[in-house]
Amino acid sequence: MSNPLARRARIKDLSNKAEGIFQYVGNDNVLFRLISTGNKLTSDANYAVALFTGFARSHQLGSQETRRTIDSIYRRVGELMCLIDIVHAAAGEEIMPEPYESIDFCYMTEYRTMLREAVIRGMPDDYKGPAQNPYAVSLVQPGVGHGNGYTLDEYDDDFSARFTRREEPRDRKLVFRCTKSELDAIKRYANIIDIKFTEEEIHHA
User: Which side of the chain, N or C, has fewer Cβ within a 10 Å radius?
Assistant: First the structure.
């Protein structure tokens, strides 16, 4: 457990420095940055709301775009809390040197509230979401790939008439088991529907 007196002294020292920043940077400059950062945070928050609300309609999100949006909000909140603390210190109040603890507390409180509501509405304890755990997809062998007059060879049997692929979580590589003739059929079918691939992307085990 940290020493309360040492923590009090550290907060006082930081408050002195924050007040000094306000005095030396200047009243107008600090307040201008405060207003500007607040406006930017509002803009980022509104954009995030619009972006994530769109998920209800399209059920699609651009991972890079959403990550940038979230990171931007985190940065703006940090900048705003810093400026608020500086003004706070100039007004004679002690600063909050660890605002992330309050943010983390609110984050987890909201998560627990939402989780409780989901459980009340019937969510099981062992729930696994389809977006985080993609389903195994069963594919039917494309008959068009054989062409007219095709005869079965020694590699064809009833067991391989259908094959299964599994899309691994967060991976777009398709893994499936097939015979050599099925591999040839897949290549022919890919050419028919104009799917581009390289030889390295298809391997026959």
Answer: N
